[in-house]
Amino acid sequence: MGRVPKQGTIQPQTRRGRKTAVVHLQVEKWRELKVIAALTDATLDKLLQDGADMVIEKFRRTRAT
Fold first, then answer.
1. What whole-number distance in Å separates Cα of residue 10 and Cα of residue 24?
2. Do the beta carbons of residue 29 and residue 40 sit within 8 Å?
3. Are 33 and 47 in contact (CB under 8 A)?
4. Rounded to whole angstroms, what are the CA distances from 19 to 10, 22, 35, 38, 54?
5. For 46, which of 12, 31, 42, 60 could close a Cys bridge (C-beta 3.0–4.6 Å)?
6. Is this structure's pTM higher than 0.70?
7. What are the distances in angstroms from CA 54 to CA 4, 6, 49, 57?
8. How far apart (Å, rounded) are the C-alpha atoms in residues 43 and 3?
9. Span 6-60, pLDDT tens digits
10. What stretch of H or E contains 42?
11. How confident is the model over 39-50, as pLDDT tens digits?
C-alpha cells in the first residue's frame, strides 16, 4: 500500500488536466461579464474559456497566412 497523500494535494476530477490562469479585470468589465453570464445562463468560467478559444483561433488563422 502507498502512503496517504497530504490533505489538499489531490485535485478534484473537474480540475484534472487543466491549469489556472489569473486575469485582473476592471470592475466594469467584470460586471458586464456577470450580466452576460446571467442573461445566457452560463458561468463566468465558461465565458472566459470561450473567450480564450476565440483568441487562440484568431491567432491560428493569423499564423497560417
1. 27
2. no
3. yes
4. 14, 10, 25, 25, 18
5. 42
6. no
7. 41, 38, 9, 5
8. 37
9. 676 666 777 778 888 999 999 999 999 999 999 999 999 999 999 999 999 999 8
10. none
11. 999 999 999 999
